[in-house]
Amino acid sequence: MAFKARIVSAVFATALGASLALTAGVPTASAAAGDSFHPALPDVIALESAASPHCLEAAGWRVDNGAPAQQWDCTGGANQKWSLVAGAAGSIVNVNSGKCLEIANWSNQDGAAAQQWDCTGGWNQKWYWTHIPGTGYTLRNAFSGKCLEIALGDNSNGAVGRQWDCWAGNNQIWYPMATN
Question: Tell me: the pLDDT tens digits for 58-76?
Fold first, then answer.
């Protein structure tokens, strides 16, 4: 594996503790204590699931809009590398495709698919990082307020990412990994 040690530290999480304002008339989820758009991490990371030894990727090296985010054995491939956009954007961009991780169709429903799409700056493409002491981070969508997860109990390659109410289960915890 081409990964360095896991980067998990409370030092990375900064408290935002304020509600987000309306942007372009779109209400957004409120930030919770301990949230930040993204902690002080390397520019490019892999996201390893706490529930399985798999990494989040854009499925099948696809570069098209709508390609699902899924878990797969960690290979170090560019489709498993994510660039963190600094500042208010809070976007997570796939290195292979240059597209942003988002929740499809601006959904606020449990089970809505995580996918990649052209980066628009929409709130459905922004993510809060919440440090879970003693473990990793949850990624909470700024529009829906729900967390990125892999369906509970599905440890298989190809299991798709989705959003669900945040409860900090292992299937919602992610370890940001520095990449080579």
Answer: 999 999 999 999 999 999 9
Range of the domain at 54: 3-179
Quote the DSSP letter at residue 124. Answer: G
User: How many domains does the chain fold into?
Assistant: 1
The whole-model pTM stands at 0.81
Helix (H, G, I), strand (E, B) or coil at 19: coil
User: 58 near 116, Cβ under 8 Å?
Assistant: yes
Q: What is the C-alpha to C-alpha distance for residues 116 and 168, in angstroms, rounded to an integer? A: 23
Looking at the chain, how many residues does it have? 180
CA gap 59, 42 in Å, rounded: 23
Q: Give the separation between CA 140 and CA 56, rounded to whole angstroms.
A: 15
Amino acid at 25: G
Answer whether residue 11 shows pLDDT above 50.
Answer: no
Q: Measured between alpha carbons, how far is 165 from 162 in angstroms, rounded to an integer?
A: 10
DSSP label at 50?
S
Across 38-47, 92-101, 136-145, 166-175, least confident range:
38-47
CATH number assigned to the domain comprising residue 19: 2.80.10.50
